[in-house]
Structure formats: C-alpha cells, structure tokens
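STRUCTURE:
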C-alpha cells in the first residue's frame, strides 16, 4: 500500500478529488473503481468518493495501481531556480505576486513562470496531497507585469472569489496606434476563434468591458508610429482571453506591433541618447502595471521594464510616466 498523509490544505475536500491531485498519473476511472471496491482506506477504514478528508488522516492506496511517483509538494519536471530569478512584488503564506518579464510563458515546462514559482515555493509549503501553487489569472507571453500565484488553497479561493465579484482592480499600460483624446469604455461581445488562435468581437460572445484613459500622444514621424501613437492606461473589468488586444484593435487602436490583431511594427529607432532600449523589445508594449482591491493583497505596482520606459520616454518625453509610477 502507498500511504499518503493529508495536510491542512486537504481538509474538507472530497476523497476522490484529493486522490486525483495526489496521483496525477493514475486515470480517474481507476481511482473511482478503487473507491467503489472499498480498496482505498482512510485511517484503515474504506471510504467512498464523497468522503470529506480531514487534515492529518492517513490514506492508503494499493501500490500496484500507482503508475508513477505521486506529485508531492512542489514536484515538477523542470529545473529549480534561485529566489533571485523571480521578481517578487509580494509574498505571504497564501499568495505570491510576481513581476513577469515579457516573453516568459506563464504555463509550461521548465522555464515557464509556473515551473519557477513551484520550485521556489516547494521548500516553503506545508505538505499537501491535493494543493499545487498556480497562477490565479492570465497574462499573455509577450505581456509583462503582475501575475498572482496561490501559495495555499485558502489564498486561491479568496483571490478567485474577489475576481468573480469584480473587487480586484487591474491597470495596464499600452502603446496603441492612432490618437485617443478622451477617456472612455469599451463594451463588446468576445468570441475565441481556436483555429486562428485569436479573440474576435462577434455576436453571441461573452461581454468584455475595458475602461481607458489617454496619458500621452505622439504625432508620428520617421522613427515609426507614422500615424501617431497613444500611451493608454487600461482597466479591464472582465477577464477574457486577449481582451485588451482584441478590443483595442476592434475600436481602431491596435497595440503598436501586435501583428496578430493588425498592428504595424513598433517604432524602429535608434531612439535618442539614453532612451535606447537595452536589448530586443517584445512584439508589442503591454504591461500589467497595478493591482488593487479588497482582500488579502496590498496595493501592488510592477515597475515597467526598461524597454517600455525607453520607448515611452523617447516618444513622449522624459516626463511621460513621471508622477504616475506609484499606486
């Protein structure tokens, strides 16, 4: 028999769900068969799928049915990383907030932000069979900025509930094509086109709402943004995939450089003097800047990357974001 010990984050969860997380290599159908046959013991007594596990209980599963090692706390197939490799904005026993670099995928194998966070949290988390830290909201690979990860089941549940209730406020910075003169709000139905891997405004889609405020205007020139560019502050009120990118494009202001949604290439300097970006820039400039709201997190701000500041200062002047970089 394989003996599993339930941790604090397993308490109150159904036995089948605990086993599904603790034994990821075992088919769910096999787990349910073992439960129906009374071959899974909790504190030496057979229990059914709906049994609610308590912290500290021992769960015995026939070893022959386990086709691979259980995914214990922090287990992953990727390389571990030193804490300094993560730009940590906030850390508590329940939540971890990271300033993600553009180009780093949130999900995936070794090298993804998810893998790095799990490696970092592994020695810090209490034992658990069913809880794994993970991202609590989306951020596209080319986008930089704040991503919040769960460090406990309680943290995941609380933050997710606040998101559903609309109590988490997010603010993004973006460089878009064209001139936006006045603040406003986009409200559109969005549908995901899986073949094109895009999101489109179309009847029957889920409603997406995004507020926007222009911060600075660049009239255009030989160094790119020929038709002009606007630095926007964006506040998505919903969380649809590619929401900002799709809505901005639909309303005539695609992100500069976002070729997937019709944007022309980013300005191609050399930019003047100290504003030259250090290294290659991402395809477009979109940064998850601030996150505030009721709940377990304090107000958070992720400093924009150097290349973002370089473009903003070169196009809009050295005062482009001055006075706007604190919550």
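SEQUENCE:
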């Amino acid at each position: 028999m394989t003996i599993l010990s339930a941790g604090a984050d397993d308490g109150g969860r159904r036995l089948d769900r605990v086993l599904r997380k603790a034994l990821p290599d075992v088919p769910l159908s096999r787990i349910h068969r073992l439960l129906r046959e009374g071959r899974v013991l909790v504190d030496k007594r057979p229990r059914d799928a709906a049994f609610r596990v308590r912290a500290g209980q021992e769960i015995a599963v026939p070893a022959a049915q386990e086709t691979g090692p259980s995914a214990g706390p922090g287990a992953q197939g990727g390389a571990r990383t030193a804490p300094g490799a993560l730009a940590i904005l906030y850390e508590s026993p329940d939540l971890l907030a990271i300033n993600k670099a553009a180009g780093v995928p949130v999900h995936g194998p070794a090298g993804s932000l998810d893998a790095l966070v799990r490696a970092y949290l592994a020695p810090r988390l209490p034992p658990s069979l069913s809880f794994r830290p993970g991202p609590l909201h989306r951020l596209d690979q080319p986008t930089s900025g704040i991503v919040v990860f769960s460090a406990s089941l309680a943290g995941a549940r609380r933050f997710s509930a606040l998101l559903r209730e609309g109590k988490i406020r997010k603010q993004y910075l973006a460089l878009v094509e064209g001139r936006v003169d006045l603040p406003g709000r986009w409200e559109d139905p969005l549908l995901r086109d899986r073949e094109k891997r895009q999101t489109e405004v179309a009847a029957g889609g889920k409603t997406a709402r995004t507020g926007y405020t222009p911060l600075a205007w660049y009239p255009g020139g030989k160094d790119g943004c020929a038709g002009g560019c606007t630095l926007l502050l964006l506040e998505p009120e919903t969380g649809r995939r590619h929401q900002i990118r799709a809505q901005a494009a639909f309303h005539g202001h695609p992100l500069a450089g976002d070729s997937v949604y019709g944007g022309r290439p980013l300005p191609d300097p050399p930019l003047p003097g100290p504003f030259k970006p250090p290294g290659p820039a991402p395809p477009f400039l979109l940064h998850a800047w601030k996150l505030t709201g009721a709940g377990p997190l304090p107000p958070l701000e992720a400093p924009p990357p150097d290349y973002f500041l370089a473009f903003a200062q070169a196009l809009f002047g050295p005062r482009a974001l001055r006075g706007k970089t604190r919550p």
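REMARK: The chain is about 15% helix and 25% strand.
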